[in-house]
Amino acid sequence: MSIKYWEFEDAALKEKLKSTNVKEIAKLFFDNDTEAYRFSVLLLEVKKRGKIRLKDVPAIVPIATAKRYFDFAIRLGIVKHENGYYELTDRFSKPFRNIATYIKTWMENNADEDLSIEFPNVKADKQQKRGGRRPIRVENSQKTDNIIIGAAPQNIEDGKGSNDSTIKTN
Q1: Does 86 lie in the same domain as 142?
Q2: Contact by Cβ (8 Å): 128, 146
Q3: DSSP of the chain, one letter per residue?
Q4: Closest by alpha carbon to 88, among 50, 42, 36, 41?
Q5: Whether residues 76 and 142 fall in one domain
């Protein structure tokens, strides 16, 4: 989400309300133009038709993508899903206000928080690489003017290692 709070202050909001468009709504939730465009297409279609089924979405948006975006809109409270149809709703007004109240209350609360207790199952260590190519190391040894490519880190100094090749430079 890329909500720029200063765009929704009272004065700025009054100007925005004079000419509303779906692009502004989509850009709140998606930084990527393609994602924002597809979300906009779906919201406009629901607005035009009143309600829509997944099989009736425009061909420009794949059905699986439409389902994912509709599910996202449901979580936001912009769209509701009943009897196989998606339709616009205004359930978002109260939850958005409640989110703002919750965040403000959290900011005013000075209690110490221990994240290891709040997130007991999280893996806090940096994730290890899971395969793929090994990084290529290029070093220029001043003694022999050799460049060693692809050697294992522990064997760089002696010029040995798995899958290494030595190239003489002079």
Answers
A1: no
A2: no
A3: ----GGGGSHHHHHHHHHS--HHHHHHHH-SSHHHHHHHHHHHHHHHHHSEE-GGGS-TTS-HHHHHHHHHHHHHHTSEEEETTEEEE--TTHHHHHHHHHHHHHHHH------HHHHSTT---SPPPP-SSPPPP-EEE-TTT-EEEES--GGGTTTT--TT-EEEE--
A4: 50
A5: no
d(CA 157, CA 141): 9
pLDDT digits (tens, 9 = 90+) for 98-157: 777 776 787 788 777 776 777 677 665 656 777 777 767 666 555 555 555 554 555 455
- Which has more pLDDT, 70 or 156? 70
Task: Give the other-Cβ count within 10 Å of 70's Cβ.
Answer: 22
Q: Which of 26-35, 79-88, 125-134 has the lowest mean pLDDT?
A: 125-134
Mean pLDDT of the chain: 75
Domain carrying residue 164: 138-168
In a domain, 67, yes or no: yes
Question: Structure pTM?
Answer: 0.57
CATH no. for residue 35?
1.10.10.10
